[in-house]
């Protein structure tokens, strides 16, 4: 009984600061754990988490962390199978490619779904070790074909909050309700092409089919924070979602990663960036009127801005870019140091502005790029990379006239994209975020020609003033120090 009361008490606590759920493994378990230990909401990225798990194993699982978490996975035989298949003592030999997870689809195979469940479980298990703070997991709504298995795995590990953005996550609250009782969960998937006509198709995940042995007592249903760009989208979700929404993270156009497109017709600046206007900024009064807690995101990463957010009626703020540059983040150490050398320790004239690229992402959402030599932000690096789609997280489903489903991605080879009904112009400039973001965290795929996949760094506009956190002469940033800098010493969940 006491344990149940403790769980209920934990579920009622609210953070003042939410650490952003960034990239593929940038917001990793180490970063989330340190933020949670410091009394705020630590968040792991759920994007491609099955691939992250098996690549860590193939790189030798330094410290044994993945294997330690898998020892706690409730389906013990499958956990042992994962280790047998993917663990390489001492890591891969140089130039040896990673083994791949099977791609997901509308009707994914059993192995695909099981690896997704295990990936979500491992990351949350590690993030929650050694403290009683709150840990969340962040998903991109656009990755509908891989989210539900990882979500279920995170719930098996006791995740406290699920956050979903980069789309309209209207199906997620009901999916969480279903997964909590091990029932089938569904998400609608819009078709990029539907030659036969008809409605959206449903992606379904059935815990009872994937892991029958795990269906027992109900799971704790995590809180759900929808990541939105406006009060109007938040209101839409409340009107069109029957299940519980617990709060909103409202991301402005200066936040890193994917940005919502500007409202109205797309207009570009002289730099080629989308032009945002007053309608794209958060309306605090309209958000307050909805009656749910909300957090502001996008250039709110100072104590003064946090105080202003609280005065506007927000429960707090979400901060991403500064946490991505902390030593506990998953960003590859050499890339993190190069970013610090350019935007913190180097001369001010070399600090290029972050570029909001309207065409880089296969999702068609604007995507913020931190320009750095040797990454895909360099046109020569982009041109030299052979286009390939071997991970498939951002593929879109299509339906032919015969009713058969197929998948395409604007970042795949242009001939393939055109063969599947795409227009070549729509593929030009698109970047394979799946491979590039894995390269950001040191998990770049090795290719047959000896090359490795190049990274592509993202950051919010705050990157241009990130040196404010290094004014005391420090050479690196710790997550706990950043929490203290933002919310004050001894700040706890409220």
Structural notes for this entry:
With 494 residues, the protein is an alpha/beta fold. It has a single domain, classed as Alpha-Beta Barrel (TIM Barrel). Helices cover 34% and strands 13% of the residues. It has 19 helices and 15 strands. The protein has helices at 2-12, 29-37, 49-58, 65-70, 76-86, 110-127, 144-156, 172-180, 207-210, 231-240, 284-289, 303-311, 321-324, 333-345, 379-384, 414-419, 424-427, 433-440, 479-487; strands at residues 17-19, 42-45, 135-140, 161-165, 185-189, 193-194, 201-205, 223-228, 247-251, 294-297, 316-319, 355-357, 367-369, 396-399, 405-408. An eight-stranded parallel sheet has the order 1-11-10-9-8-4-3-2. Helix 3 (49-58) packs across helix 6 (110-127).
Q: Please tally the helical runs, counting DSSP H or I stretches of 4 or more residues.
A: 19
Tell me the structural class. alpha/beta
| Biggest pleated-sheet summary | 8 strands, parallel
| Span between termini | 23 Å
Which residues sit in consecutive blocks of at least 5 with pLDDT less than 50?
5-11, 490-494
pLDDT averaged residue by residue: 91
CATH topology: TIM Barrel
Shape: globular
What are the main properties of this structure?
494 residues; alpha/beta; eight-stranded parallel beta sheet; 15 strands; disordered C terminus; TIM Barrel
SSE blueprint:
Layout: H1 2-12, E1 17-19, H2 29-37, E2 42-45, H3 49-58, H4 65-70, H5 76-86, H6 110-127, E3 135-140, H7 144-156, E4 161-165, H8 172-180, E5 185-189, E6 193-194, E7 201-205, H9 207-210, E8 223-228, H10 231-240, E9 247-251, H11 284-289, E10 294-297, H12 303-311, E11 316-319, H13 321-324, H14 333-345, E12 355-357, E13 367-369, H15 379-384, E14 396-399, E15 405-408, H16 414-419, H17 424-427, H18 433-440, H19 479-487
Parallel strand pairs: 1-11, 2-3, 3-4, 4-8, 6-14, 8-9, 9-10, 10-11
Antiparallel strand pairs: 5-7, 12-13, 14-15
Helix pairs in contact: 2-6, 3-6, 6-7, 7-8
């Amino acid at each position: 009984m006491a344990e149940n009361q403790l769980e209920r008490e934990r579920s009622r606590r609210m953070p003042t600061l939410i650490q952003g759920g960034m990239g593929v493994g940038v917001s990793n378990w180490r970063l989330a754990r340190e933020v949670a230990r410091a009394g705020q909401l630590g968040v792991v990225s759920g994007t491609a988490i099955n691939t992250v798990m098996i690549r860590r194993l193939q790189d030798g699982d330094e410290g044994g962390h993945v294997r330690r978490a898998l020892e706690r996975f409730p389906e013990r035989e499958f956990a042992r199978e994962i280790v047998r298949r993917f663990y390489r003592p001492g890591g891969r030999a140089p130039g040896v490619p990673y083994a791949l997870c099977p791609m997901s689809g509308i009707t994914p195979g059993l192995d695909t779904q099981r690896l997704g469940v295990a990936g979500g479980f491992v990351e949350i298990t590690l993030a929650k070790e050694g403290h009683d703070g709150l840990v969340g997991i962040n998903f991109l709504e656009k990755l509908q074909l891989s989210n539900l298995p990882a979500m279920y795995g995170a719930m098996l590990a006791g995740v406290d909050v699920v956050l979903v953005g980069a789309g309209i996550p209207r199906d997620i609250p009901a999916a969480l309700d279903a997964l909590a009782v091990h029932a089938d969960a569904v998400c609608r998937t819009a078709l990029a092409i539907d030659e036969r006509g008809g409605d959206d198709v449903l992606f379904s995940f059935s815990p009872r089919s994937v892991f029958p042995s795990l269906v027992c007592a109900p799971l704790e249903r995590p809180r759900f924070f929808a990541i939105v760009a406006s009060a109007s989208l938040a209101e839409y979700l409340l009107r069109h979602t029957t299940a519980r929404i617990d709060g909103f993270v409202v991301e402005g156009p200066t936040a890193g990663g994917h940005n919502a497109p500007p409202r109205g017709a797309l207009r570009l600046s002289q730099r080629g960036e989308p032009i945002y206007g007053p309608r794209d900024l958060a309306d605090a009064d309209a958000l307050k009127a909805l009656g749910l807690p909300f957090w502001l995101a996008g250039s709110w990463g100072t104590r003064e801005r946090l105080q202003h957010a609280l005065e506007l009626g927000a429960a707090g703020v979400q901060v991403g870019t500064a946490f991505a540059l902390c030593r506990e983040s998953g960003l590859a150490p050499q890339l993190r140091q190069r970013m610090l050398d350019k935007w913190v320790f180097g001369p001010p004239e070399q600090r290029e502005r972050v570029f909001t690229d309207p065409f880089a992402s296969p999702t068609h959402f604007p995507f913020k790029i931190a320009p750095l030599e040797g990454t895909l932000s360099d046109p020569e690096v982009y041109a030299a990379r052979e286009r390939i789609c071997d991970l498939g997280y951002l593929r879109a489903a299509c339906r032919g006239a015969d009713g058969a489903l197929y998948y395409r991605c604007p970042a795949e080879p242009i001939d393939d994209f055109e063969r599947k009904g795409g227009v070549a112009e729509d593929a030009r400039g698109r970047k394979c975020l799946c491979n590039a973001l894995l390269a950001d965290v040191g998990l770049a795929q090795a290719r047959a020609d000896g090359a490795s996949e190049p990274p592509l760094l993202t950051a919010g506009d705050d990157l241009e003033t990130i040196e404010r956190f290094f004014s005391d002469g420090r050479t690196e940033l710790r997550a706990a120090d950043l929490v203290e800098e933002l919310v004050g010493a001894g700040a706890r969940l409220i």
